[in-house]
Amino acid sequence: MKFDYTVTEVNKFTAAELVQKHHYSKVMPKLTKHYLGVLLDGKLVGILTLGWGTQPRQTINKLFPGLDTKDYYEIGKMCMLPEMPRNSESQMLSAVIKWMKKRLPERLFLYTWADGIVGKVGYVYQSANFLYGGFIWTDIYIGPDGEKIHPRTSHNLCVENAKFVGKEKVFWLTKDFMKVKGITRIKGKQFRYIMPLSKKARKMLDKSTVSWTIDNYPKEGDLEWKKQGEDGYEMLSAMPKIDLGMVNINKKNVDSFKREENRFFG
Hints:
With 266 residues, the chain is an alpha+beta fold.
């Protein structure tokens, strides 16, 4: 079924309401420049945010030496109402790409990651003909309640950990501290995807530091996980148990995207 989507900018609270209700992760990216609402017959059915990750310039410059933040956007969050039919998200991506080409013609690339740690290999990007550029191993913590904790949101834990071991600072949680707190450290794959937004961008693909292809898309069999133990990392036979609805360490981020009336009256 072909949908005639309308893409328009919305405020961050409208975006967060839909994302935090329907997306597997309630944490909103901080470096967001555009909150895009996707409408069907006037009804908001999807949200996609554009901005950058934690290392905006390094990310693109590592892939395409010489490029900077002005040359690309990264998808921070993408979410659609669960009742939308199959292939709705790939069509949403197509609508957003058209919007970008018209409103942001200076951008060369749309970049994104599929979060293999929670079982995502990026089927929606594959359906939308994004190019695949391999994977990296990345780290997360899992709290005793099953909460997924990204290292970039573990600052308060690191402060507590530093006091625990008698140091001024720690940048990664120590094994003894994690044992006391019931926290585990997991490694998993993140799969990178990119969409060139112009002929100029497509010509630049050959000069990238990684190979971009549509012939070797990852599948579920490519998912892998490692758990930190006393003597290093050990492979896991299945995805670790993560409660994606749990918000504790990440509560400050989630609450900051709620409207004022929701913060005080539930």
